[in-house]
Each structure stands twice: as C-alpha cells, then as structure tokens.
Write a structure and sequence with these properties.
three-stranded mixed sheet; binds iron/sulfur cluster; Endonuclease III, domain 1; Nucleoside Triphosphate Pyrophosphohydrolase; mainly alpha; single chain; 6 strands; about 45% helix
Length: about 350
C-alpha cells in the first residue's frame, strides 16, 4: 500500500454523511503514514506469512499478551511446522507444548481444525472466509486475520485492539448505527481497502496495541488525534458495569500412589480450568470434613488466574478416590511418564517439588 494514499471507497452504509467520507480519507492517510514508521514490523510471526503460521499466531494471541506468545510460538512451529504435522500429532504432545499459555480449549480446537483442514482441503489452509469459519475455534476476526495477513485480501478483523480504535474514533457514526456489534462491523467493512488488506489490518492492530490502549491511551502521540473525539470520559466509563471482586476457589487434589509407585492422574474435563490437561484427581473437601476422615496435607500453593485465585491443596485421604466429575480419563502413570504429559505449569511445579528428580 502506498503510504498517504487512501484506498478507493466501497459502497458506504446507509446514513453516511459527506463529513464521514472526508474523515474516512483522513483516517486512512494518517493511519498508514504512521504505520510505515511506527508500526510493528518484526514480530516473530510477521516473518512467516504462510496462512498456517498466521493462524497459529492468531489463536495464541487470543486473550494472551504478545510477550507470552513470543515464548511459545517458535517452539510450537518448530515442532509442528505444517498443518499436516499438527494434524498427525498426539494430543498430549500438542497440550504439553501449549502448557502455560492457558485457555487450553484453543489448543484442542486448533488440533481438531488442523485435522479437518487435512481431511477437507488436502492440508492447505482455505482462502475463503466461509471455509475458515467452518473450522472449530475460528471466528470472524481470526478468519479475517488469516485472509488479510496471509493472503493480503481485504477482510474485517474486529479483535479487541481494532474494536477499541474504531469505537473511539468513529464514536459518533457508531452511535448513529445503533452502537451495537453490527454497527461496528459495518463501519469496519466500510473502511476496508478495495485491494490488499495486510497493511490495513496490521496498522489498526498496532495502533490499538501501542497507542490507543485500553487504560491509558496515548492521545498526544496518536496520528488520529486532530479528528478523534478521544476516549470516553471517566464519568462515562464509571457508569458502565462495575468490575466484580476476585474470587478464591479451593482446589483439593488427591495424591494417590499404587504399590509400583505410580501416580493416579486424570485428564481434566474439556471445558473449564486447564481443559484437557493432566492433573491429580480433584476431591470434594466435604468428603473428609463430613465423615471426619483424617487427611494428610502434602503441599499447598496459591495460584492466580486471570479471573480467579486458586488455593491448591494436595492431600491424601484414606479411602478417598476423588469425585471424578467431568474427567475424561483416569490412569496410573509412572514418574518417568510425567515429562511427556501436558500438565498446568503450577501442577507440574508442585509434582516436581514432591518428587524431585
Ligand atoms: S486520539 Fe486517542 S482515543 Fe483517538 S484513536 Fe488516538 S489514542 Fe485512540
């Protein structure tokens, strides 16, 4: 894309004024000039523009910071360099490499989707939005990011960063469009260039991540500042939903070994905390409180998740077998097997301290 040259305009949504059209031109010109010099051009996932690599990075970046993804992206791509390699992998190996990145459902979906891409598309990541949207874990934004960043075609991307920039800069138009999701999507579509798409998507993502940040937008440094109404005022924000206080959940885990020294492990349910990862069986603490059973506390750790604090206690209770709710598999594993299984990092750390090598 030539810096400073606005793309041709598509058909505008209903109610667009000549002032909106002028602002659109200005928006593109300023945004793309800024992107050329201030945008991010050397992130690890920008060096490999294959659709598969873009797809992996987009899934990893959902609800996860760029800094965390940096540590996981390269080892994952090195172990699974192609869709086919990922499709053929054992799910334990996939989860072990994802372990620590959180939101494990993403890894399950990515793995299932890779198998579908091999089955339906011969291992080539589809170019059509509809085909991408038919894959598990691929929503409008991820599909749009693959189409625009990998195939350099115009496609709507509305991740949290892009959404914030558009909602702030186009606040008035968004209000006129009903201030809802559909209105924002219409605006995003109206802003698409007629050709290309990579620079447009990346510029919006970068402005949202680097300048138009959620908590402390750097408006004085923003290329759009002269035409932007700015972020909502503090009083507007405080009229929104109050943030709920953090909760603490006690997680009681059972340490049980058989005569051969093997550990009883379970695979966690496919939904919820640590979905699909291996763990010690969870036991309902009411079981030993109610029956007055004695129990031994081996270790205890406090662990902070994004939305919740966990108070994890590893215990032994004679006769206790864990409640088993939602577990998909229960199995005795030798200590040598532990390194090959996908555990939540906090549980792996607790097991390593209980059974040092
Ligand atoms: S001027 Fe401020 S609110 Fe507007 S787009 Fe720039 S950083 Fe965001």
């Amino acid at each position: 894309m030539t810096p400073g040259r606005p793309p041709p305009e598509g058909s505008p949504p209903e109610g667009i004024t000549t002032e909106d059209v002028r602002r659109r031109r200005d928006f593109h010109r300023r945004l793309h000039r800024w992107f050329e010099t201030e945008g991010r051009h050397d992130l690890p996932w920008q060096r490999d523009r294959r659709a598969y690599a873009v797809w992996v990075s987009e899934i990893m970046l959902q609800q996860t910071t760029v800094e965390s993804v940096r540590r996981y992206y390269r080892p994952f791509l090195a172990r699974f360099p192609t869709v086919r390699a990922l499709a053929e992998a054992d799910s334990d190996v996939v989860l072990a490499l994802w372990s620590g990145l959180g939101y494990y459902r993403r890894a399950h979906n990515l793995h299932r989707a890779a198998r579908l891409v091999v089955e339906r598309h011969g291992g080539r990541v589809p170019r059509r939005l509809e085909d991408l949207l038919a894959l598990p874990g691929v929503g409008l934004s991820t599909a749009g990011a693959i189409v625009s960043l990998a195939y350099d075609r115009p496609a709507v991307v509305l991740d949290t960063n892009v959404r914030r920039v558009l909602a702030r800069f186009w606040a008035d138009l968004h209000r006129r469009r009903g201030e809802n999701e559909r209105g924002l999507e219409e605006i995003a579509r109206w802003l698409l260039p007629a050709h290309g798409g990579r620079a447009h998507t990346q510029a919006l993502m970068d402005l949202g991540a680097l300048v138009c940040r959620a908590r402390d937008p750097d408006c004085p440094a923003c290329p759009l500042r002269t035409a932007c109404p700015g972020p909502p005022r503090e009083s507007d924000r405080s009229s929104g939903r109050a943030s709920s206080p953090r909760r603490t959940k006690v997680l009681t885990l059972l340490l049980r070994r058989d005569r051969r020294g093997r550990l009883l492990l379970v695979r966690r349910p496919p939904e919820g905390i640590w979905a699909g990862l291996w763990c010690l069986p969870e036991v309902d603490p009411r079981f030993f409180l109610r029956d007055g059973k004695s129990h031994r506390l081996f270790t205890r750790r406090l662990h902070r998740l994004t939305h919740l604090d966990l108070d994890i206690r590893v215990v032994d209770i004679p006769g206790g077998e864990g409640k088993g709710s939602g577990e998909t598999l229960r199995s005795w594993k030798s200590l040598e097997d532990l390194g090959r299984l996908g555990f939540p990092p906090v549980i792996r750390g607790m097991l390593e301290s209980l059974f040092p090598a």
